[in-house]
Amino acid sequence: MNRIKDRIAVITGSARGIGFSIAESFAAEGATVIILDLFKEAVDEAVAKLISQGYKADGFTGNVTKPDDMEAVFNAVVEKHKTVDILVNNAGITKDNLILRMKEEEWDAVIAVNLKGTFICTQKAFKIMMKQRSGSIINIASVIGLMGNAGQANYAATKGGLIAFTKSCAKEFASRNVRVNAVAPGFIQTEMTSSLPAEVVESYAKAIPLGKMGLPEDVAKLCLFFAADDSTYITGQTLAVDGGLTMY
Ligand SMILES: NC(=O)c1ccc[n+]([C@@H]2O[C@H](COP(=O)([O-])OP(=O)(O)OC[C@H]3O[C@@H](n4cnc5c(N)ncnc54)[C@H](O)[C@@H]3O)[C@@H](O)[C@H]2O)c1
């Protein structure tokens, strides 16, 4: 308990799914969590859920691909909560298609949210963290960024890009005591994967040594490790939480 007590943690795309689970686990360890997502109703609902459990939470609406939105959100967070200690770049989308059929809009949309959104939020957070000479940034990548996937070239390019971005940020930010690590989830039960046909899920499960899909909480536990002081000598790393699917 209280592993990140009183720290201010911004988690993008946290109104549901893995992001919400990360928010819940951070809040349970004493952090004030900032829910940042696209739609006000969903943000309000997520914040209310956390507060009803006795946790400290606040919510902001914004699109991570829009620098002006993020400038306004990060300024408002600092005005209200004084600082940002932890950033989780979790907002992510898929727009799957085979390369031959992939539309330019499908390519651009995924790059914009997963990669550019992470750059924008990281830049805003680092400006705050460098002044206090401490911080932890966690980028949610994917095993697809490690091993590729037919029909997901756009998504794979962003997630592989995030891993390289993580290492570059870790090198740039280390002298300011700001750590940057990436988490690469495997197949996790969320709305993003709920539309997969049962036979596809079954075939994925067969390829996973631990024999089942993961839960959002499994990803949250690893994020908590990277956010907390348990990992103060770890930066630039990517760790998969995937039931053993990838073993690099
Ligand atoms: N579910 C999985 O199996 C899995 C596996 C590997 C990686 N991931 C990654 O984990 C992260 C979360 O995935 P999830 O399954 O919880 O997805 P999800 O679709 O359930 O949730 C994503 C959240 O991000 C928000 N979002 C999308 N675009 C946004 C934007 N432009 N600005 C702000 N918020 C935005 C959505 O509104 C939503 O609340 C993603 O980065 C995803 O790529 C998921």
Describe the structure using short key phrases.
16% strand, 48% helix, 9 helices, binds nicotinamide-adenine-dinucleotide, 248 residues, single chain, Rossmann fold, alpha/beta
What does this structure look like?
- With 248 residues, this protein is of the alpha/beta class.
- Helices cover 48% and strands 16% of the residues.
- The chain contains nine helices and seven strands; from the N terminus they run βαβαβαβαβααβαααβ.
- The chain has helices spanning 17-28, 40-52, 67-81, 104-132, 144-147, 153-173, 191-194, 198-207, 216-227, and strands spanning 8-12, 32-37, 56-61, 86-89, 135-140, 178-185, 238-241.
- Helix 2 links the parallel strand 2 (32-37) and strand 3 (56-61).
- The longest helix has 29 residues, at 104-132.
- The protein starts with 7 loop residues before the first strand and ends in a 7-residue tail after the last strand.
- Bound molecules: nicotinamide-adenine-dinucleotide.
- Nicotinamide-adenine-dinucleotide (NAD) binds at residues 12-13, 15-19, 37-38, 63-65, 90-93, 113, 117, 140, 142, 185, 187-188, 190-193.
- Nicotinamide-adenine-dinucleotide binds at residues 12-13, 15-19, 37-38, 63-65, 90-93, 113, 117, 140, 142, 185, 187-188, 190-193.
